[in-house]
Write a structure and sequence with these properties.
20 helices, about 650 residues, alpha/beta, five-stranded parallel sheet, single chain
């Protein structure tokens, strides 16, 4: 018998069969599209990898419905232009086949950004339009759509849907959530019309219904429609659940599935449009449940799901009919297959951290495009390149020594072992995980702890000889006589020569395992200092964070920083532009932004001021074996994703 019978129960809608109840949700992570909207081989391969992983449906990320006012960026697949080049049409067909050949339903999310678009991304520099005219806070004038505009946009949606159908897609998802155009019509925050398209919910729903009807007219009833809507916008003045339920009732006889998300894209952390590392998993299930009770068609729930147990319970309890996985499918595309094989414990858990990485700016203000990466799965978005660029192992059974049991070292060890080498991992600690040992104590790091333990379990299953409590020296390496060495010994905390710092303050992570007094001063407002301080504040301490720069968490991604800002407790204060001058046994002296000398009393003092590479130790260890790679913080300060990525690359180079 199936362990998760509801999760694996097929469902057929209008002749289209979903082989199970798990969907791959659309994710704005695909920039691998040629100019002009043709999917690249990397794009096609990425979707096929997830389809091969066993899901019942794969939905492409948002495709905009015209090149006039709908698109907010240019890395989107074009389904709306009729009779485009033969190459383009063939690429769309290949993309659909790459999904359907594995038994998954092929779908694409169609979208129009409406009033939140910007003139710089709109054809001919027009102003954006939406349900109502207004002057935005950024000074952009939004124009009110005329009835003719509505009919034109409805035609664009229908032509895009037809393009998807002709390419072999069996379903389209209309994006009516996250504050985009269709959702702008039903939201009281953005629809202030006084004609038949404003006021009551019945009136506000007229334009979305116009779009749905036009798609049926052009495409027929055999193209399924999944309507994505925010069950609540979770912002002041925005759509509430009661109104969302009312809208769902109005569309239920015209669409085939209602997909329930929440929030607004431009306030995505607070409104849970994309749940953060601090939100509960399945954070929109209550909204989906309320809508499910009100309608007679299937309902999809989305929002940080990452365990088969939670998926099974959500469906079995009748709260929803489908569960859509977003970033979890980047973390582990084989999610469904592993569950089907009874290997749930091998699923790589998603951390909900950084794959929605924004553009970053370098000091000279030029824009640097940062590719989407997954912290826990370094193969994500690289599958096609790795398939073609990774050579087969010519000499298996090589003797590989990995020094360091943090995330990078563990990933290097298991990759080398899975490729057929004899791998030994040595670490001075008594448990694998490196500096992630603290996740056993931090009240906000349960997902990170699961990631640590998952990697450790994989290392042992891969047959790696793990030797803990071993301090590796040059002599250790010489005696081992390896064919290849991977050094992942981590960095060392930086302790500047501030008077009294080294005598009276401890490195931040020590706060997890020692008794701390009521008043805490943390010197350093980077991500480590702030997150340790949050834990201390949430466990009953009063914490002051002193940061010399003009902002805190400058090393955090924008979404992560916003989540921290929203979660920061009142018992924690962050003071920026504050330079520490002296550290005593029970005080810290500093200069505030106005140049005044201030004193902060403290029961305990900690610091988190960055890392440095252990250059002397590295020089000794790498002097033994010519084939030595250095990865992670011991090479240069890096995120976990970079250590994991470089660990994989180092292991792949052992051929």
């Amino acid at each position: 018998m199936l362990k998760y019978p509801h999760m694996f129960a097929p469902m057929t809608i209008k002749g289209v069969t979903f082989k199970n109840r798990v969907m791959d949700a659309p994710k704005t992570t695909d920039r691998t599209v040629f100019p002009g909207g043709t999917p690249t081989p990397e794009c096609i391969n990425g979707y096929e990898v997830r389809a091969r992983g066993g899901v019942g449906c794969v939905t492409l990320t948002e495709s905009f419905v015209d090149d006039d006012r709908s698109a907010r960026h240019d890395h989107t697949i074009d389904f709306y232009t009729p009779n485009k080049s033969v190459y383009h049409q063939e690429a769309l067909f290949v993309l659909a086949e790459a999904i359907t050949r594995h038994g998954a339903v092929a779908s694409v999310e169609l979208n129009h950004t409406g009033c939140v678009n910007h003139p710089s991304t709109i054809k001919d520099g027009k102003n954006p339009f939406g349900p109502s005219a207004f002057l935005r806070e950024d000074g952009v004038q939004v124009e009110e759509m005329t009835v003719a505009d509505m009919h034109e946009v409805a035609d664009h949606f229908a032509q895009a849907a037809l393009g998807a159908k002709l390419a072999g897609f069996q379903m389209v998802m209309l994006h009516g959530g996250h504050g985009w155009l269709l959702g702008q019509y039903i939201s009281p925050l953005t629809n202030h019309r006084t004609d038949e398209y404003g006021g009551s919910m019945e009136n506000r729903a007229r334009f979305p219904l116009m779009v749905i009807d036009r798609i049926h007219e052009v495409c027929g009833d055999d193209l399924l429609i999944e309507y994505r809507m925010s069950g609540a916008e979770r912002v002041p003045g925005g759509l509430e659940l009661s109104e969302a339920v009312e809208f769902a009732k109005l569309i239920q006889d015209k669409v085939d599935i209602i997909h329930v998300t929440s929030g607004m894209y431009h306030n995505h952390v607070a409104s849970k449009a994309f749940s953060s590392i601090y939100h509960p998993h399945g954070c929109n299930l209550d909204l989906a449940e309320a809508i499910k009770k009100a309608v007679h068609i299937p309902v999809t729930a989305v929002g940080g799901f990452n365990s088969p147990e939670q998926i099974e319970e959500a469906i079995a309890s009748g709260k929803c009919d489908f569960v859509a996985l977003g970033r979890q499918m980047l973390a582990d595309p084989e999610f469904v297959n592993k569950v089907a094989k009874g290997k749930e414990d091998e699923i790589m858990p998603c951390l909900r951290c950084s794959c929605f990485n924004p553009l970053a700016s370098d000091p000279d203000k030029r824009v640097q495009v940062v590719p989407f990466e997954c912290t826990v799965n370094p193969t994500s978005m690289r599958q096609l390149r790795l398939q073609s660029s990774t050579p087969d192992v010519k000499e298996k059974g090589q003797k590989v020594l990995v020094v360091g049991g943090g995330p990078g070292g563990m990933y290097a060890a298991l990759t080398a072992a899975e490729r057929g080498h004899r791998v030994t991992l040595m670490d001075s600690r008594e448990k694998l995980g490196g500096t992630l040992w603290y996740t056993s104590y931090d009240c906000h790091k349960d997902d990170m702890r699961k990631f640590r333990d998952h990697l450790a379990n994989r290392v042992y299953r891969a047959g790696v000889d793990v030797q803990l409590g071993v301090t590796v020296t040059k002599e250790t390496v010489e005696q081992f006589n390896p064919d290849a060495v991977i050094l992942a010994i981590g960095g060392r905390p930086v302790a500047p020569r501030i008077p009294g710092l080294r005598e009276n303050a401890k490195y931040a992570l020590n706060a997890y395992t020692q008794e701390s007094g009521k008043k805490i001063v943390m010197i350093g407002g980077g991500l480590v200092g702030v997150e340790v301080s949050m834990h201390l504040a949430d466990t009953g301490h009063e914490v002051v964070v002193l940061e010399m720069l003009d902002d805190y968490c400058r090393d955090a991604l924008l979404s992560h920083k916003e989540a921290i800002r929203l979660l920061m407790p009142e018992s924690m204060k962050v003071l920026c532009s504050t330079r520490v001058t002296e550290v005593g046994a029970d005080y810290v002296k500093a200069i505030d932004p106005e140049g005044n000398a201030v004193v902060f009393p403290a029961d305990n003092i900690y610091y988190a001021l960055g890392f440095r590479a252990p250059t002397d130790e590295l020089a000794e260890l790498r002097s033994v074996c010519a084939r030595t790679a250095v990865i992670g913080d011991c090479n240069k300060p890096a995120r976990i994703m970079h250590a994991v990525r470089d660990g994989m690359f180092a292991a792949l180079d052992i051929v």
